[in-house]
Amino acid sequence: MQYLIESLIRPSSLNIKKICNRSYKIIIEPLERGFGNTIGNSLRRILLSYIPGYSITEMEIEGILHEFSFKDGIKEDIMDIMLNIKNMPLSLNNKNEITLFINKTGLGKVLSKDIVYNNYVNIINPDHLICTITKENTTFNAKLKVEKGIGYREIKYNGIDIKDKFGKLFIDSYFNPVEKVSYIVENTRFENKNNLDKLIINIETNGSIEIEEIIKTSVLILIKQLDIFLNIKSKKDIVDDYNNLDLNNNIFLKKIDDLKLTVRSLNCLKSKNINLLGDLIQKNENELLKIPNFGKKSLSEINNILNKYNLSLETKIDNWNIIKENINK
Prior knowledge:
The chain is an alpha+beta fold. It has 3 domains: 2-51 and 178-231, Gyrase A, domain 2 (2-Layer Sandwich); 52-174, DNA-directed RNA polymerase, insert domain (RNA Polymerase Alpha Subunit, Chain A, domain 2); 235-327, DNA polymerase, domain 1. 29% of the residues lie in helices and 29% in strands. It has 10 helices and 15 strands. It has helices at residues 2-6, 35-49, 78-86, 211-226, 235-243, 263-271, 277-281, 285-289, 296-308, 320-327; strands at residues 13-20, 23-31, 52-61, 90-92, 97-105, 108-111, 115-116, 121-123, 129-133, 139-150, 152-153, 169-170, 173-174, 178-190, 193-205. The protein is flat. The two termini are 28 Å apart.
């Protein structure tokens, strides 16, 4: 089986082409027939929904209590300002959260370059419009909260832990740095095989995260979601595990006859085919109490004995039935 898997062609070429400022083409080849669509569709969904990024989640504007207000001397209404803020791409260096400030007086546009920030913050487009001051003596003071997150977060989930929400304007947040993804699969050849796939993925980002990091993250997410399947054991694997057990020292294989139980408790357990310690510890108290003549005194006795072995009821043992089958062979 392993030999056949290794014989499958694996991609040997990954080429990242920058089409324009924030648009890229990723070419992967060669792939076995059908793998282009399998990988392309999986990565597309992850790229559009699960790449971590940064977004402004709330803001405070001096003199403004809610989003339906107007500020004298400002051209845009508060809802428009919030929309402008929401669409401003940025990123943080080694920070998951930070607070930024804007303080500008006088006629003209308030741009993202007017934000007071430090080396922890990267403003992607310094000319991104926030609002426009139309009166000479008007001052625009604002406080912005930036957070790291995944996907889309509705307004109602921003500031959910904040008790005092007075004057705070919460913004629905789209953290994902990827804006558009599409893919196509073309034919390609490799050595003497010509019925192979070439996968071409087109990605547009907001510029806040490097394309190489975006691609690596998407693949890592996919791998981690599939990791669990590598832990699946076949019946043969389980039997091999059993064959490696030390039957004399494995506590689960200890017979309940050797637990020094009272005759009543021992007979009750055997009446339900509970013959090994491994059988017993997988039961819960209610199951045991339903056994005829098995009462709370017997339950207390069982718990005391299990404590001596550092065991307890309701303990799961993987593949116990298969192990038991091989005990009797």
